[in-house]
Amino acid sequence: MELTFAQSLSISFEAVGKLFLIAALGFVLARRGMLKSDIMSGLTRLTIDVVVPCSLAVSMMKKFHLGMVAENWPVLIHPAAMIFLGVGLAWVWFRFVRTPRPSQGSAAMALSAIPNSFYVPYPVALAVTLALGAAIEERDAVAALVGISVLSINPLQWTLGTVLVTAGSAEGAKRHWSQYLKYAWNGPVVGIVVGAILAQFPPIVAAANHQLESPLLLRMLVGSAETIGAAMPPLAMIILGSLIAQCELRQALNWRILVPVFVIRFGLIPAFTYLLLRSGWIPAHGWLPFVLMLSAASPPATNLALAARRYDGDWETVSSILFVTNSSALLILPLWIAVGLSLIGR
User: What CA–CA distance (Å, rounded) separates 165 from 304?
Assistant: First the structure.
């Protein structure tokens, strides 16, 4: 199904818009006090530790094979390279532009460079492929590609990102960067790794693909996990909305902090990614350009706010920038998604 750029933009906006309306529901519920901190704590743990791993594991079981990593190596290398590029560009900016507090510059470096690895790309990818009428096999392949990119982004998010958003804090000063490594092994990563291992066993792959010749018990087990994982998109967006509801907008209105995040996160990194794909420097096929563009243009990682809050970092700056960038993504992200779709003839 080949679409014009305008049609791709319309489909992307509709897919992203529906998800952000769900996030708006989470925002309203949190602001009205219906999603209190204890409820959100339990809901977040349920989503990260159960629902997301189930969704990712089943997607990996259906489509993952060892050759997939070799065939799609850019989805592992490119996101990490763009993170280091983003940190470097932000560092240059803050060498010349001073912020009221040094911690704000460090936090902005993390927000400029580290994209949302899962909460936005995964449900958006599923929504866009569904809107395009992609076959279930294609949707599972896209989900597996997003899952592989998480393996590249998450370790850097929980190490480099956490160090940056806690720079200057008393708690952060006590910790060595290596102490953050344990947070790189989390629910989504466990789901990806377990799913990739189980995908090497043909009976499990057959069960994941609902083949009747597979053992009934396996089909029931994998089917249960798949049903649980289906709750991921709405839960992830409700949680995202509730996090944004805790932000203080006034902290983000300082142009010295906001400009580099917007220019790097929504401009330079996706534009550079597009040029690499267009010129052939990144060998791309199938849905790979779409996944790379989606990752490159995603708003900053919301988990950076959790890290800043947990380790006494600059929570106000991080959360307020997340408020502005995630709200703006509703308009900016569909544009880059349409660009990504144009690269694959959609």
Answer: 7
Q: Which of 228, 137, 232, 150 is nearest to 196 (CA)?
A: 150
Domains defined along the chain, listed by start: 5-36+73-186+233-343 (1.20.1530)
Render pLDDT for 192-206 as a digit per residue (tens, 0 to 9).
889 889 999 999 999
On the CB side of 46, CA atoms within 13 Å amount to 14
User: Which pTM was predicted?
Assistant: 0.77
CA–CA separation, 4 and 43 (whole Å): 40
Q: Around Cβ 91, how many Cβ atoms within 10 Å?
A: 15
| 167 to 80, 109, 134, 138: CA distances (angstroms) | 21, 11, 44, 42
Digit-coded pLDDT (tens) for 7-28: 767 776 777 777 778 888 988 9
3-class SS string, the chain: CCCCHHHHHHHHHHHHHHHHHHHHHHHHHHHCCCCCHHHHHHHHHHHHHHHHHHHHHHHHHHHCCHHHHHHCCHHHHHHHHHHHHHHHHHHHHHHHCCCCCHHHHHHHHHHHHCECCCCCHHHHHHHHHHHCCCCHHHHHHHHHHHHHHHHHHHHHHHHHHHHHHCCCCHHHHHCCHHHHHHHHCCHHHHHHHHHHHHCCCHHHHHHHCCCCCCCHHHHHHHHHHHHHHCCHHHHHHHHHHHHHHCCCHHHHHCHHHHHHHHHHHHHHHHHHHHHHHHHCCCCCCCCHHHHHHHHHHCCECCHHHHHHHHCCCCHHHHHHHHHHHHHHHHHHHHHHHHHHHHHCCC
Measured in whole angstroms, the distance separating CA 60 from the mean position of its chain's CA atoms is: 17
Amino acid letter for position 182: K
Distance CA 238, CA 229 (A): 15
d(C-alpha 152, C-alpha 162), whole Å: 16
Largest CA distance in the chain: 65
| Closest among 10, 25, 12 to 234, alpha carbons compared | 25
